[in-house]
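Practice problem 4.
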């Protein structure tokens, strides 16, 4: 499990159809074989490491549902180690299981802050609510607004400067993980034997 609080922006050294090597200064100071590291929000397993880099295998399923396959050598990626049991949950619960890919529509600078508009797939958009949590390239952010399948997120200067968002532009693709609570609610409401009387309208009327 992760929190969506990025620890370091690493640099892709090499990437193939089944493996990625990432240059890192912070993550590699405390890493072991088999550790989980979120790379742009996708949970990968460390298969090799040294003081300056680590390798991880990329499964066909991961390539299918994430934007990792679009990366090139020299590009920057967000890195976060798995949350320790005694760690602080500074962002929100992030599983590292990417739900889909979003497309950046616009990046608007508002003083020192940034407003980023992202187009989501219909599947992901159904699991997003205004003021809810969402992970974008592994970054824990709050949805400021949603219009159909386009969301807006407000990004503070610290987050923009210390993640790979500062290297993105309109047209770029990002990994999306929706809030795990939204997934459970959607699953619960979609079951045919839901006889509790709880509906989407009920939840909205009661502040959910």
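Answer key:
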């Amino acid at each position: 499990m992760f929190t969506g609080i990025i620890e370091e922006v690493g640099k892709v050294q090499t990437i193939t159809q089944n493996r990625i090597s990432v240059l890192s200064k912070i993550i590699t100071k405390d890493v072991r074989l088999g550790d989980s590291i979120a790379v742009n929000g996708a949970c990968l397993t460390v298969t090799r490491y040294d003081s300056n880099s680590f390798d991880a295998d990329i499964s066909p399923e991961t390539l299918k549902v994430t934007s990792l396959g679009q990366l090139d050598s020299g590009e920057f990626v967000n890195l976060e180690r798995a949350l320790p049991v005694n760690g602080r949950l500074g962002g929100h619960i992030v599983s590292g299981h990417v739900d889909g890919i979003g497309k950046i529509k616009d990046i608007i600078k508002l003083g020192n802050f940034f407003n980023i508009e992202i187009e989501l797939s219909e599947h992901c958009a159904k699991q997003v609510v205004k003021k809810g949590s969402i992970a974008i390239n592994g970054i824990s952010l709050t949805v400021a607004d949603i219009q159909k399948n386009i969301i807006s997120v407000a990004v503070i200067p610290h987050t923009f400067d210390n993640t790979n968002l500062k290297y993105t532009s309109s047209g770029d693709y990002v990994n999306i993980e929706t809030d795990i609570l939204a997934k459970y609610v959607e699953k619960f409401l979609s079951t045919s034997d839901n006889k509790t009387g709880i509906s989407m309208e009920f939840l909205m009327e009661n502040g959910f």
